[in-house]
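To whoever is covering the structure queue this week,

Two jobs came back overnight. Logging them here so there's a record in the thread.

Job A:
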Amino acid sequence: MVLLPLGALAQGTIIDSGSADPFPGILKFGDSGNAVKELQLILKNDTVIYPEGITSGYYGSLTVAAIKRLQRRYGLSETGVFDEATQEALFPTKTRIDIDIFAPNGNEAWDKSQAHDITWEVTIGPVVIEGRTIVGETASTDTIRPLTVPFFPYASIDLIRDSDPRFRYHIGSANLYTAKYTWRIPADIPTGTDYRVEMGIGGNVPCLYRAEREGKAGFTAPCPAGLPYYSQSDTSDAPFKIEA
């Protein structure tokens, strides 16, 4: 993540994020633009943090209050400024988050007529979570420190093919900590023997998550060109088969 030094942006700056980083610098009261809107779109996923849920693209008093609530939850200084430490809590890039896909992980044959479970394990730092839901303040504080649980807990899941590096189908988004996503294969997915599932966090996952809820998931790429799909990811170890 490329960050501008504190104070590098004057109050009222218009900030439009077109880089691979959804937040190209520190955001604060008076700023406006796409980067602020992206921040608000993520914050509104938690009505405790951002009950108003306004996505105007303007960093006003409501956004300041939301950031202060977020900072309080993560034990940060309540400045209301979306600084580097707050960005890391919301959308981690330095925290070690490892994903290990269990299924499909090679040699399975998945029939389109049935629902199939994509399953995985996630390790955050030294803590392994398998099949347990951890969201915001409901995290198990005896085993997980709040700073190790990202505020935006979603991972994106894609279908890829060994025979066609251009093929990428956005299956959907899932909470990292549920460790399972049930998928019924759409009829328009061609049959084949060389499919893999790729799952990851970071990159343009917030954009994919939002696009999915707007009904834009699928073969088309709904996010701006140039964004990396994932910052941290895992792919099925071997190909699996999709059959009619």
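Job B:
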Amino acid sequence: MKNLSMSQQGIVMTFLGATFWGLSGVGGEYLLNVSRLDSTWLISNRLFYSGLIMIILLYLKNKDRIFEIFSSKTDSVSLLYFAFCGLLVCQATYFMAIKYTNAGTATVLQYLGPLIIMGYYCFYRKKFSKVNELLAILLSLIGTIIIVSHFNFESLSISKEGLFWGIFSAIGLATYNILSIKLISKYGAMLTVGWAMFLSGVIVQIFTKSFYIPQYFGIKELIAFIVVVLFGTILSFTFYLHGVQLIGAVRGSIIACFEPIAAIIFSVLLIGTKFNFYDILGSFFILIGVVILNRN
């Protein structure tokens, strides 16, 4: 890395962050669809342990700032709102989408989120679409139709549950991004997301009583869970945020579109998930739409 320019380092770090996010989805797919673990257990424990580790790391780095977000009553309320209405919804719906489809399809469908964000600003904030934004919407809708129908309009190619949770996860992603803007700009992404994950994880753990080790939780399940927590949260956020600092949010968001591609590749290589031509074609349309949108 020392031999690379700052821009090249940023590209590599952002690419690794997106790759680790994709790998995390495959870890979740293994736990949910191969090991058949309870989805509530995975969601609550992923949030709790990811948030806990992030807070510990931040405390070791700068313990004076770790509780800063709670110094303001308004920000504390905003954090709780983000934790339960943004992050929890985003994470829960994503893993439910994986349960009823697979990591690649769930990740691609979640990438409809930026279009929902754009729609929010168009209709709620009265910021109307430009030509490239309309093109992005059209391409993404075409991609979604291809994935869902495989051009057979008499029946769905994925389950109704998979489609529901996939679209819901896109809404969750949009909500997550909108609710986090002010807090992240003030306190940073790691601190905001770390506390939101920990707080939502604690509450979900208490209400679902998920403080237990599942039956038949072996070494493979442990490795998959570590991938979800370590690679899918801590390393992915660390690499991606450092990369964005070096190359900017626009270029970073475009490179982040590699996440669903990584999820598809890892899903095929590691657990043998099957994707056909229509799945790849639909994913391509959606990702091109997101790239066009991010180049605005």
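Note for Job B: The two ends are 30 Å apart (CA to CA).

Please reply-all if you pick these up so we don't duplicate work.
Q.
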